[in-house]
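Lesson 9: reading folded outputs for more than one chain in a single document. The general rule is that every protein is listed as its sequence immediately followed by its structure tokens, and records are never interleaved. Here is the first one.
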Amino acid sequence: MTVSAFTEQTTPEKLLQSWAKVNGKKALYVEVNIETFTALWTNAGVDILPKMMEFHRYMDKNPWAGSENILTKDDLSVEGLLSVEESFEVLKSQMCCFKSC
């Protein structure tokens, strides 16, 4: 049996904006074609990242493909899960232990 679940639905743009807000940065999400991406990221752009980009585009159009029912935290009455933004806050506080913030 497979159970598909998630705590928060987001997009790459929203994910980036959450990170930027937590870190006090300005960020702009710009989607580019694979050729431009490869020119920016060299070997990583050729090997790994284009596949990741294709996967994320597919999942954006077909979230949880193959599952008819999505189990949510509300279905399970689960409380206390962190949002994406709250998770970035926790990560930021943990990183401050290793460098001066």
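And here is the second record, again sequence then tokens.
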Amino acid sequence: MIHIERIDTLAEFASLREEWNDLLAASGSESIHLRHEWLYTWAVHFLAKKDLLVLRLCEGNDTIGFAPLQVRTIRLRGMLPYRQVLFLGDPESDFSDFIVTRHREQALRAIFARLRSRLTWGEMLFHNISDTSPNLYALKDILVRESAIVREQTKCYYIDTQAVTWEQYYATTSKSFVQQDLRRLHNHLRDKNWEVVESTLQDISREIETIQFLHSCSQARKARGSYYASDRYRRFIAAMMEELKKFGEIRLFYLLLDKKPIAFVLGFHFRKIFYYWNIGFDSAHQKLSPSKVLLAEVIQRCFHSGVNEFNFMRGDSDYKTRWTKQFRSNFQIRWLNERGFYGFFNQYRSHSGQTSRAEQPQLEPA
């Protein structure tokens, strides 16, 4: 029989690192954004202590998994407090899941029974469950019976760097967007002093300053702000980079022009997969398309350095389809509470047309 214990302090969560990562590796759900190092660092920087909701799944004296969750209170239309149950790491994590090593369906049922009986919530909203998740079939079977909505949320494009050579892969990319444009760009760069380098990550604070500048420049072109403008986000990134560099799991590349960085790619290297996470460039060099040149160089290095996959992570951005047609899907599960006050309120909202069960409502932070 499966029983559940709640982990509700950061100190206790911190102590789980080795056990957490061992179970994650055995669960079939392993990804960089489910690693203890990522989730704990995220919780320290973004989560109110009372909102931690990590559940330990036990069979007898054995731990067989964890449910990495959080409670978030938002305000609908700026007024009514509304409690959501989300995956820990949301919205920064690109991949989320439950960590279960055996008795999968029984364990998942135990999680939802616990949440239903011990917690007050308006909805459970689980983002970015990969279609490769060993839990997805059981989650659909369990929650659709409860009138939950399971839908494709976004695509995650990737390049299989094992199946073919770099030259064979490159021939499949967009002739105009990739091949012809890169040929043109390299002609422009031919007489310039440029190179691609990988940072040694010796001075993280200095790297953050450089990344912030380049990301802000490229976002300003589209009249968008950079999340690096947030002090809290920068502190999170710095702490995360310090932690992951101990394991060689964070990688930072620059395109240098006359020894000055004009573009960056920040990614993760985990289990022979390169996860492409952030990119930015100095808009003063926009005509050189430095981010495209750098991206091509990083992908090529992955082919030549024993990486099995280059993963673009979540997002349906059109440019990704110019580099590859291969993708997996991330799914969202949304379960509206049909009991008590929240049940009445959710029913009212559905009937009044304020929200669709298949859509995430327009929410404002509490």
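What the second record shows: Residues 356-366 have pLDDT under 50 and may be disordered.
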